[in-house]
Amino acid sequence: MQGSTRRELLLGSGASAAALLLAVHAAEATPESLQAAIRNVTGKAEIGKGKVTLDIPPLVENGNTVPMSVSVESPMTATDYVKTIYVFNEKNPQPNVVAIHLGPYAGKADVSVRVRLADSQRVVAIVELSDGSFWSTTANVIVTVAACLEGNL
Fold first, then answer.
1. Above 60 in pLDDT, residue 138?
2. 123 falls in which pLDDT band (50, 70, 90)?
3. The domain that contains 106 carries what CATH number?
4. Does residue 132 form part of some domain?
5. Distance between CA 85 and CA 127 in Å, rounded?
6. How many domains, the chain?
7. Domain carrying residue 80
């Protein structure tokens, strides 16, 4: 850019950045994107029911901070332990909520977090055990005041 001033260069860069920001919009997760996210983690492995407890309120007034805990029945020994706890949802901008990696010395497979929920939806907890097996449970949550809206991002 011969002959351009620094101001012209900055203005041009700002216009390009603004155009890029206008092209980006919030993703809208769907039940299909939920299943795709789960398959990205589990591949073609069979996912059993049980061994996992998902504790999340069935009705929340405000989706901005929803308490949730996941616990897994596991002895947490060197040969039998929880490798990873995954949580997914179907209506947030991204279906992956959290992945927590554990090991045999974690002592207990029990985690608590607060999550944001964009709307009433299904939440899925899946765990991978040290033997390569996957186990899951689901919960339906009704949210009266949604989080993750475009103005809240």
1. yes
2. very high
3. 2.60.40.2470
4. yes
5. 4
6. 1
7. 27-152
